[in-house]
Amino acid sequence: MSKITQEQGNRYAAKVKEYKTSIDAILLKEQSLSNLLKQPGGQGAGYVRIKLAGETLVLTSYQVLINSLSVSLLGIKNEDSLAEARKSIGRSIKYLEDIVTGFVDAAFSEYEANLAEIAEVSYEERYELLRKIGFAIREIEEGYGANSKWKWSFVEMWGKLATVAKNSLDLKRAFLDMDLVSPNRMIVLSYIGFIKKQLQTTADRYREKYEVSSMKMDDFKQAILFLNALRRIHVVFAERNEADELKKKIEIWSAKLENDIKKKEEESRKR
Fold it and tell me: Which of 8, 45, 116, 220 would you call most buried, defined as having the most Cβ atoms within 10 angstroms of its Cβ?
């Protein structure tokens, strides 16, 4: 690595100071909004949490920028900034989870009532926020690099995004808005496509984590759980062929899991 010049160091410090001023302002705003949630009655709590999710997403963007600036000007990662970005994007997702629940594979009736808290938030606003969160997670992952020690921790984060994306959509309303005459048809199709992709990708990542890294049965169980959640979406929207194909896949994965559990038990008895 080449030596960092004073000019590079000064440019970096000046820019970071500018970003940190914005970061401090956002943190104050987050604290102020969080205080509203502590007030008696909790009126408008859902909208406050949506606002908090947006603010912490912006906060994440600044933290990612600091790392990008460090790489471009100094030639080194800013691990502290990436760590803060991980925390803030985690809070962004948690604010949404606190509204719509973190149920991965559950009937819509189990969390439908929660959506009343954000009934006035449009498809476009929800979808845009979720996509931006996904973009931020990807930027943090790329900031760390492919061989980072944090690589597998992102599987859970992607899973949480997939879950809140699914649970943020009013499935009854979305089913009606898939009608050819609905003005919301295109945004609903895009939104549902995003959910399906996130659920499938998360299932694949959990299985990869199981086979390549952890060998923990819980990871494989999570993979199957996300496939079940995806199948539930296909069933809701009367996509019978896709649901049937996914059922076969779930059966194959479940059989492998059961076989792996038996092998592990046999190995334990031999010791």
Answer: 220
Provide the CA 246 distance to its chain's centre, in angstroms.
22
Answer yes or no: are the C-beta atoms of 171 and 103 closer than 8 Å: no
Whether residue 222 contacts residue 159, with contact meaning beta carbons closer than 8 Å, is answered with yes
Under-50 pLDDT residues of the chain: none
pLDDT value for 5:
84
Which tens digit of pLDDT belongs to each residue from 103-127? Answer: 999 999 999 999 999 999 999 999 9
What lies within 8 Å, CB to CB, of 221 at 6+ separation is 257
Q: Give me the pLDDT at residue 151, please.
A: 94
Query: What's the 3-state SS for 5-70?
Result: CHHHHHHHHHHHHHHHHHHHHHHHHHHHHHHHHCCCCCCCHHHHHHHHHHHHHHHHHHHHHHHHHH
Per the CB < 8 A criterion, the answer to whether 61 and 136 are in contact is yes
What residue segments make up the domains of the chain, in order of their start?
1-168, 169-271
8 A C-beta contact, residue 57 and residue 129:
yes
pLDDT score recorded for residue 6: 84
Integer Cα distance of 157 and 139 in angstroms: 13
CB hemisphere CA count around 18 (13 angstroms): 9
Show the tokens assigned to 271: 């010791």
Structure tokens at 128: 């845009």
Q: How far is it, in rounded angstroms, from Cα 194 to Cα 199?
A: 9
148: left (phi over 0), alpha (psi -120 to 50) or beta: beta
Calpha distance 54→50 (Å, rounded): 6
